[in-house]
Amino acid sequence: MKRTLLLLTIIIACSQAIAQAPMGMGTISGKTTKIDKNAVLIQGKYLYNKEWQRGAIQMRPGNVIHMKQMKVNFFTDAVEYPKGNEEMSTTLENVRKVVVFTDADSTKVEATFGVFPFGETKNPSFYQVLNDGKFQLMKHNKVGTNKMRVDPIVGQSETLYFYSAVSFYVSRDGKLIELKGLSKSNVFEVVPEAEAASEWLSSHKNKLKKEEDVVALFDYLNSQAPQGQ
Question: pLDDT digits over 98-150, tens only?
């Protein structure tokens, strides 16, 4: 529990600090392999962005490694990057946080991903941090493969495709708590304090059915919290 609290405290810190950090020294110390080119032959989306983007990786010791080109892979839970003529992939065992910058400005954060255990295997996985503050909404995108039947006329009976299973978590008090789904009752169950914002939700016609709705509520709750909490 103490370890989880420490990690979440670091995630809450502004990601702009990483954007302004000097170029990190050292290498990414996860399990590194060459990328399997067969993955690109499978239909569907498995990357955060198929284009190379600038980014930064915060390792568990705290050092920051800035990347001129990288991709976030939800299927393998790994960071991809070019190395010479090869494309490499490294796992997340020693990664604390991954920040993706906009292409035009390497100081502007496009997305932040915390790294926490997922599922029964407890393997490290990407959780996208959707807002800052005491109450945070975290988005997990689990990508897998499945088979789909194809008309034999095209020359094959079945093909593989990627599918995505999105789940949401609330970060509070040093814990990640899974939401059963995006709805007012599910959010109120995990965050009882949200009931006090019922009038605000009504006036903003916010039914908490979309991730933007929950983020807006959490931003409101965080703005109402006393300074220092």
Answer: 999 997 777 799 999 999 999 889 999 999 999 999 999 999 999 999 987 76
HEC string for the chain: CHHHHHHHHHHHCCCHHHHHCCCCCCCCCCCEEECCHHHHHCECCCECCCCCEEEEEEECCCCEEEEEEEEEECCCCEEEEEECCEEEEEECCCEEEEEEECCCCCCCEEEEEEEEEECCCCEEEEEEECCCCCCEEEEEEEEEEEEEECCHHHCCCEEEEEEEEEEEEEEECCEEEECCCCCHHHHHHHCHHHHHHHHHHHHCCCCCCCHHHHHHHHHHHHHHCCCCC
Distance CA 3, CA 104 (A): 36
Write down the pTM of the prediction. Answer: 0.82
Token representation of residue 222: 């965080």
Low-confidence ranges of the chain (pLDDT < 70): 1-30, 35-40, 150-157, 227-229
